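Final report, closing paragraph on structural work. Over the funding period we assembled a curated collection of sequence-structure pairs, and we close with a single example.
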Amino acid sequence: MTTGERIIELQNQLQNSAEYKRIGQIKRLSFSLQIFTSNAAELKRRIAHARRPQVSIKLGGNQFLFEQYFLDMMRLLHNFVAASLTLIDHARRLHANYADHPSFRDYKKEIKSRFATDPLCQFVKDLRNYTLHWEIPFIGSKVSIIPGERMEHTMYLNSDQLIRWDGWKAPARVFLENSNKEIDLYAVLLEYETKIRDFYDWYYMRLREVHEKDILYVEAKQAQLLRLIGLGLPRHLEVELHRYQKSRTRPEDMFYGYVDPEAFYKLTRSDTGAGERAKVLLDYVSKYSTVPENLRQRVVDAFVEYYGASRKGQPRAKDLQEREKPY
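Its predicted structure, as stored:
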């Protein structure tokens, strides 16, 4: 049997196994979580960008740019609140499989204490209904001058406008009534995202306990596959480095297909330096493939060259200008 035939045989064994299908249900929820966190990150980046003094000045002097910029921010807010309820509904459907499981006896208690009675979480939940079924909320902009320090730019939602809608449930209405007239959108995003992240850290820890045997089986099969696939990794990296020299594509992409998608997502979004992140990816694949030292160094050099030795895992200045210029 050739290496290719053995790879296909192992893939079929894995994909047709009950263990893989059970883990697949959990994996699909992780996709919903990643969509939510990506939408939150996009909106946070846009707000952070708009808060820069030079951007504020440029937008303030051009009504067309201002309107287009904030239209895009409203689009991102729409995506964020829509993804928040998508995640809730997908998690609820998955959890129906574990409703009577001993490991989740305290699930309802956790949901109640973390979300059901939390004014901010209920505000975001109802904001989704407001946005999708009533109107896109207006995002305001306020500039404050802090004497001797800096200019501070805040993006806000207007509570007077929002509270006129009669669809707010009691906890969300409490949040609105106790908020300032100008609700700091960035602060809401940060707090809500932290609550979501903390809950899913807890939830996935329990799921790993429930599916420990399934995970071990799938990981063992995947390790067998990776060892076979890894035989071709050095050659693959050589080809990808050659392609990088011609097109200057994002260097992380040369590892795509050789790193588990969830691990790839986490590793390529870390806040470490470019060279350090390259080493982390190389260390990950070294579990099943031997990458010669000179090849490792060339991969690290490609990362550092692309991002710039002084930037902590961020795109080059040119990329930032293209990605974040205000229209």
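Residues 215-324 form one domain. The first strand starts at residue 139 and ends at 146. We thank the funder for supporting this effort.
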